[in-house]
From TrEMBL, chains A, B:
This is Nitrilotriacetate monooxygenase. The keyword Oxidoreductase applies. Residues 20-385 form the Luciferase-like domain. Pfam families: Bac_luciferase. Belongs to the NtaA/SnaA/DszA monooxygenase family. GO terms for molecular function: monooxygenase activity. It comes from Paracraurococcus ruber. Keywords: Flavoprotein, FMN, Monooxygenase, Oxidoreductase. CDD domains: Nitrilotriacetate_monoxgenase (cd01095). PANTHER family: ALKANESULFONATE MONOOXYGENASE-RELATED, C2H2 FINGER DOMAIN TRANSCRIPTION FACTOR (EUROFUNG)-RELATED.
Length: 457, 457
């Protein structure tokens, strides 16, 4: 069996993951909507042999202007729509996986199934779908609602949504299109499967009007930490994008999610758990620290307070240098608890808390030499806390290029990371299960049984 | 004033517009889902200085398997999703416009506004949206419904849908993103407009999370021939994709739609009416005719009947070589009437009728020398029947390459067609009105009035 190796993704949200990324001296003048910027980022990821480049997404601005005046001091405003952007980036890359976030809350499964299938064809089998539920009321208001639906409704809909999408991806068998110009037969009719889904949220007839894709089915990524989120991941995901700060928390999460998989008859190896990791390498620890500090100093206090307000409510009535109070208006998000844990654990002031999350937003942060960062990865990787990492560069593209040029070679030296892509598709590179075609298999089993039966007569 | 010139688009649906296109000897073996095929098609359109390449779309298979066994003898089954495909094609072209169809019937305006805005950014201002209402029950069944909603509901929703999308495209003023790294101001808050739309179909708060696009707003194309469709076009479209067979019909349509524009305070010149035109050039008339005949002979009778069934209901109980009966199950579509008119006008048999629409599907068909085709265009162009044409190549890419290599030079010789692109954006090339930003203008007027007022004090 091949040696187990670390999987790497990169989150390429805008100009970087850090709140002040857009104020970095190297940040492109055109901001979040400069196409060459994203070309450079994905090409760097591919040069670094990353499994995938990952686009978070919201169907609306997801940052409260609270305290007022904060929003215009952030770059949390505009961005490319992920499916269109990744389709464009597919044309300037050859191997790196392309993962887009699409919400199950305000979408229709038929549209989502089509778009990801289409991206999988365009990219030659490199598409992935990060399945999320939309949690903010700000997004709800763009879709005929005042408030986001509650947890159970959102996750119930999400589970059915994924089921419908996977069903639609099985509309056509792999080898159904014979396209015989002479006889005039374009496809073999027995290889077309009509889904006819009738569920509480969705009634979807099908078939999908996109052929079976190069990967069979795009990779499914799940990002959600609650009980419902974990169950959805155990049932259907190939990758989990997780958030944990400590080894113990990550181990508990890893054990819990992998443990749930048996219920679905799945091999735990077929779900890659990849926590977010803000990695800030420098040739020396001091250089790394200085780089990070330069960004930290650019966090406007208004923006820091707003970053907290998004999870804990507005704390601007409290002393910035006093303790973090019991949150006045805590929001429905697993990260609210992570932030409170950070504050309690470190006994932090409000200012210290927002500075501590300005970079990683609740994800793990490692600042140091390439060896320090490789050590940090290796520890979690070898101690059942992670199968890989979703790298969150504080600024882009420099923060990613540093990881590619400094950390990747160190991981390779240790035999922890590939030195060439293993396959052509994202599934192959990740080493997750090939997509099965349950309907085709059932049809073929039935045909074989019928043939054996008639032979026995 | 610049000389009025013919506008050209090309419909690049699958392997060509003709029912038997996929059986053409040159049709790519990979069928409708081969990316290099579409690269070649759009690059040919750009070489021919076409205004735009156009993708029709359905949110489901839109072809009845009636009589049974017909569907698998067509290529009306799978295709790329248009927004993803055009985003990819934007990377391998520089000037040609990229127009995708998106239905207003089963979509949300926020999603549609985002995707087209994103494509406009990716392509540097070359995006267009073909606004349609989804008419088939087959599509309805993919979206929790049994049947498509009736005309009035569909068009009522479509009109409000377009209004919301255009409003969302005005979320940000052009020069709002100052991105001042020193002061920490990312955008000027007064340049952000919150739509807050409250209508019968949609309640959409906004703002859009995509910046104002290079074109200001993607070009709006409308394809719909009913009274409601014409009104929508007169109110909001930059281009109409029409269908007419005779000069008189085209003139009546042209006059009617342009006549409706005054009601909306619009200049008739700012709406380009582009009927579909299946053009089949050959070096001689005989060669052209032979090319077309070779395809006609590949129309399976089952497929021919099915093509009729989609509009008139199943005629397979009748004699193929007998007259066209009163249709048993006529569908809600303006093209049903066009087909009946064709049959009555020519006194056609069922076989003759399906053969007469197998190519152009109700659009005008011209087979001949480059001069014949240029004559046919010139006539309509000069006699108030068309501002340009949406070319429907019977097969692709050859059928388009023939037009580019033979007909375009003839049009240029006559001074009827550009010899170089006029501008960078689709709007500039089409010569339609620049997109205004009504909210920005209102704000600036108010600010100026306030300044004058205080100066006068
Ligand atoms: C690591 C991580 C990344 C996420 N990325 C997105 C995203 O890009 N877009 C989005 O709308 N929601 C995103 N979510 C939100 C989840 O889908 C979910 O709504 C939210 O986490 C609340 O559910 P939970 O308590 O199960 O985590 C993300 C969540 C996590 C934990
Ligand atoms: C030339 C033309 C092209 C059209 N293209 C599409 C298309 O690509 N997808 C679609 O769903 N409907 C398409 N339609 C359908 C229209 O949006 C509309 O639903 C249909 O024509 C019925 O309305 P009408 O009677 O106003 O034409 C097209 C219609 C016309 C006339």
């Amino acid at each position: 069996m091949a040696k187990r190796r670390i999987r790497l993704g990169v989150s390429m949200i805008g100009l970087g993951y850090h709140l002040a990324a857009w104020r970095h001296p190297d940040a492109p003048a055109g901001g979040n909507m400069e196409l060459p910027h994203f070309v450079r980022v994905t090409q760097a990821a591919e040069r670094g042999l990353f499994d995938m480049a990952f686009l978070a997404d919201g169907v609306g601005i997801r940052f409260h202007d609270e305290p007022k005046g904060a929003l215009c001091r952030t770059s949390k405003n505009v961005q490319f729509e992920p499916l269109t952007l990744l389709s464009a980036l597919a044309m300037v890359t050859r191997r790196v996986g392309l993962v887009a976030t699409a919400s199950t809350t305000y979408n229709e499964p038929y549209h989502v199934a089509r778009k990801f299938a289409s991206l999988d064809h365009i990219s030659g089998g490199r598409a992935g779908w990060n399945v999320v539920t939309s949690v903010t009321d700000m997004e709800a208001r763009n879709f005929n609602r005042d408030k986001a639906p509650g947890y159970d409704v959102r996750y119930d809909r999400a589970a059915e949504f994924v089921e419908v999408v996977r069903g639609l991806w099985e509309s056509w068998e792999d080898d159904v299109f014979v396209r015989d110009k002479e006889s005039g037969i374009n496809y073999r009719p027995e290889g077309l499967h009509v889904l006819d889904h009738q569920g509480p949220h969705f009634q979807v007839k099908g078939p999908l009007n996109v052929a079976r894709t190069p990967q069979g089915a795009p990779v499914i990524v799940q990002a959600g930490a609650s009980d419902q989120g974990r169950e959805l991941a155990a049932a259907t995901a190939d990758v989990v994008y997780a958030a944990a700060q400590t080894l113990a928390d990550a181990q508990a999460y890893y054990r819990d999610v992998k443990g749930r998989m048996a219920r679905y008859g799945r091999d735990p190896d077929h779900l890659k758990i990849m926590p977010g990791l803000m990695a800030v390498p420098g040739r020396t620890r001091q250089e790394a620290q200085d780089r990070y500090e330069a960004l930290q100093q650019r966090v406007d206090p208004l923006v820091g307070l707003a970053a907290l307000a998004n999870y804990l409510g507005d704390l601007s009535g409290y002393d910035l240098d006093g303790p973090v109070p019991e949150p006045p208006n805590r929001r429905m998000h697993s990260r609210a608890q992570i932030f409170l844990d950070i504050a309690r654990r470190g006994n932090l002031t409000i200012r210290q808390l927002y500075l501590s999350i300005a970079g990683g937003n609740g994800h793990r942060l490692v600042i140091g030499t390439p060896a320090d960062i490789a050590d940090a990865m290796e520890e979690w990787f070898h101690q059942d806390a992670a199968d890989g990492f979703n790298i969150l560069p504080p600024w882009l593209p420099g923060g990613l290029e540093d990881v590619v040029d400094m950390v990747v070679p160190e991981l390779q030296r240790r035999g922890l990371f590939r030195t060439a892509y293993e396959g052509m598709t994202l599934r192959e590179n990740l080493g997750v299960a090939p997509a099965t075609h349950r309907r085709a298999e059932a049809r073929k089993r039935a045909a074989m049984a019928a043939a054996l039966g008639s032979a026995a007569q």
